[in-house]
């Protein structure tokens, strides 16, 4: 018996069994339940009524479009602020880069609700109104580290000889950046976009706290329907959100592959 147990654990593929079970129980089964509820009505019969309700319901559709707009604005703001920060941190002459990176990602160690409540307290201290501006500010503040770190990681691992080769060929600093550094950093940019866009488009707690429930995002709509017992319609909305996130990941992966094939050409 002991020899059989020892032989079982000596096989490397057997160590994947716990992860496979975890994947099935906590990922696959919830997704299957979402699909099941989304395509059934309250009586359990197959129906497209939940999706039809979403298409003809103006409030849900407007909330969906508005949430995508907020997510795009937040992602662009994080990219504009995060790329220069990641670029500076990746420079070899910046001797304290590792310490600064830790300072940038330090907010990720704090619970997102605590960070959001701190933002509410900050706006209250400055006598600033809570609303759309506070929502975007809070989104950028919460998700900026998710943009900085992937870009920094990519820039840090970049082959410096390619930059030296571009400089030897007569490229000025602007040309070196546009034709060498930027294309080679696109995998990090795409990863950052996905890591910011996905949680932004599906969040609801940040919007509730920073707008005093005056602005509703799509995640709030999903949460309200499930909380009120409308599991089928809530599951349909969740499935729509998952499809949007899946399309985003697919698009960014294609862009990533394209940048890897054609990047770094002078």
Task: Please trace the helix and strand order, writing H or E for each element.
Answer: HHHHHHHHHHHHH
Strand fraction equals under 5%
Rg calculated over all Cα atoms: 23 Å
Globular, elongated, flat, extended or rod-shaped: what is the shape? globular
Question: Helicity range of the residues?
Answer: over 70%
Work out the helix count. 13
In short:
This protein is mainly alpha-helical and 266 residues long.
Task: Explain what you see.
By secondary structure, the chain is mainly alpha-helical. It has helices spanning 2-10, 17-38, 49-56, 58-89, 97-105, 112-125, 132-156, 160-168, 173-184, 186-202, 205-210, 218-227, 231-262. The chain starts with a helix and ends with a helix.
Task: Jot down its keywords.
single chain, 13 helices, mainly alpha, disordered C terminus
Helices and strands in order:
Elements: H1 2-10, H2 17-38, H3 49-56, H4 58-89, H5 97-105, H6 112-125, H7 132-156, H8 160-168, H9 173-184, H10 186-202, H11 205-210, H12 218-227, H13 231-262
Helix pairs in contact: 2-13, 3-13, 4-7, 4-10, 7-10, 8-9, 10-13, 12-13
């Amino acid at each position: 018996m002991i020899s059989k147990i020892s032989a079982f654990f000596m096989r490397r593929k057997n160590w994947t069994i716990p992860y496979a079970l975890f994947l099935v129980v906590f990922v696959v089964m919830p997704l299957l339940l979402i699909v099941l509820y989304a395509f059934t009505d309250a009586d359990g019969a197959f129906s497209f009524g939940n999706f039809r309700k979403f298409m003809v319901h103006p409030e849900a559709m407007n909330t969906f479009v508005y949430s995508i707009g907020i997510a795009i604005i937040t992602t662009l703001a994080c990219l504009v602020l995060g790329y220069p920060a990641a670029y500076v941190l990746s420079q070899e002459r910046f001797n304290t880069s590792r310490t600064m990176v830790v300072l940038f990602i330090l907010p990720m160690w704090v619970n997102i609700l605590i960070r959001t409540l701190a933002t509410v307290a900050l706006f209250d201290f400055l006598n600033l109104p809570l609303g759309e501006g506070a929502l975007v500010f809070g989104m950028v503040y919460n998700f900026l580290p998710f943009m900085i770190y992937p870009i920094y990681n990519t820039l840090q691992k970049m082959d410096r000889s390619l930059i030296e080769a571009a400089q030897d060929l007569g490229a000025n600093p602007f040309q070196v950046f546009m034709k060498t550094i930027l294309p080679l950093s696109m995998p990090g940019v795409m990863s950052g976009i996905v890591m910011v866009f996905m949680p932004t488009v599906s969040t609801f707690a940040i919007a509730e706290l920073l707008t005093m429930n005056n602005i509703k995002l799509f995640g709030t709509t999903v949460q309200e329907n499930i909380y009120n017992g409308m599991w089928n319609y809530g599951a349909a909305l969740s499935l729509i959100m998952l499809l949007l996130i899946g399309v985003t990941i697919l698009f960014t992966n294609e862009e990533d592959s394209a940048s890897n094939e054609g990047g770094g050409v002078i």
